[in-house]
Design a protein that fits this description.
- It is globular, with a radius of gyration of 21 Å.
- It folds into two domains: 213 residues, Sandwich (Jelly Rolls), CATH 2.60.120.650; 57 residues, no CATH class.
- The protein is of the alpha+beta class.
- The chain has a five-stranded antiparallel β-sheet, with helices on one face.
- It binds 2-oxoglutaric acid and fe (ii) ion (FE2).
- The site of 2-oxoglutaric acid has 11 residues, from strand 5, strand 6, strand 10 and strand 11.
């Protein structure tokens, strides 16, 4: 593994001290720390979610962090005029797939592997789109965020389950069982994570009728999020993590229902074809049964009969 920390390059205005960045080699020399990724990929566009096309280069993001991510709330206003209470965090699905090939040194799979306990992902079996090698929606991301950034309370899409492995930094999590009252925990509000912690955490914690699981995640640790569990995450330090969402057989019926209800019929059909092509008739039968019982509509009936 090459050591990307070697040599001094000129990164202009990026003040690594102000973004509380250390030349850590956690995860091994050349591991996926902010510093190492920054050195390797500073001229490459990064994304902040998959739903819009806003991008900036890693170098620009480093400059942005230098300006906005001061940690010290008591710092005189003049020294930190642009301190952002809820700074932007990277949420990039390309990074986990394409990036690592870009510098020609490696490919993603030689740099990390899926923990074996999460190995079977039924969405992997979906047939590809015609004339394409795309066969499923984005499902793996690199997450990078400074202190105070995070992800507001949400349930992961399409009733997928997820794992998140932290490579650098520290993440604080709160997870709620699926039966929790969505209004009470603010699930329907579009509230940034830091404000959720400031406005809701204490009062929810005090309620005896609310169950919550709290996690302080450290580098090298993996958090598992079962399908349907609302969760909220805040980065307490500059953090780098990898996450995958996957379709577990355990939640087969729920996933199918969610695909049908959320307008993913085209993908649902390709997935069903893939399950059939792989001889997973028992799963196809389960899907057929729940589709009929839940009155999910007509659109897949032709596929069931072949
Ligand atoms: O670490 C984060 O900010 C969010 C992790 C998460 O819940 C997700 O990616 O869905
Ligand atoms: Fe999530």
């Amino acid at each position: 593994m090459p050591d990307y920390t070697e040599g001094e390059e000129d990164f202009g205005d990026v003040d690594f001290h102000k973004i509380h960045l250390h030349k850590t080699t956690a995860g091994g020399s050349g591991g996926w720390t902010f510093f190492n990724l920054f050195h390797r990929f500073n001229d490459i566009d990064i994304r902040f979610n998959d739903l819009h096309n806003g991008v900036m280069t890693f170098l620009q993001y480093g400059k942005y962090l230098s300006l906005v991510s001061y940690e010290d709330e008591d710092e005189p206003e003049n020294d930190a005029p642009l301190r952002d209470p809820s700074p932007l965090a990277v949420y990039d699905s390309f990074m986990a797939t394409d990036w690592i090939d870009l510098d020609g040194t490696s490919n993603t799979h030689s740099e990390y592997s899926v923990p074996s306990v999460f190995g079977l992902d039924l969405f992997d079996l979906a047939e590809p789109l015609p004339d394409s090698d795309i066969h499923r929606p984005p499902y793996r991301w690199v997450l990078i965020g400074p202190p105070r950034s995070g992800t507001g309370i949400h349930i992961d899409p399409l009733l997928t389950s997820a794992w998140v492995t932290l490579l650098q930094g520290c993440k604080r999590w709160v997870l709620f069982p699926p039966e929790t009252d969505a209004n009470l925990i603010g699930l329907k509000e579009d509230e940034q994570s830091i404000f959720w912690f400031k406005n809701r955490y204490e009062s929810l914690k005090a309620r005896s009728n609310i169950k919550m699981i709290e996690v302080l995640q450290m580098p090298g640790e993996t958090v598992y999020i079962p399908a349907g569990w609302p969760h909220v995450v805040i980065n307490l330090e500059l953090s780098v993590a990898v996450t995958h969402n996957y379709a577990s057989e355990v939640f087969l019926e729920e996933i199918w229902g969610s695909l049908c209800r959320e307008g993913e019929g085209e993908f649902a059909l390709r997935w069903l074809e893939g399950l059939k092509a792989n001889g997973l008739d028992d799963l196809v039968d389960r899907i057929r049964k729940c589709h009929e019982e839940d009155g999910l509509g007509e659109f897949v009936s032709a596929s069931f009969s072949s």
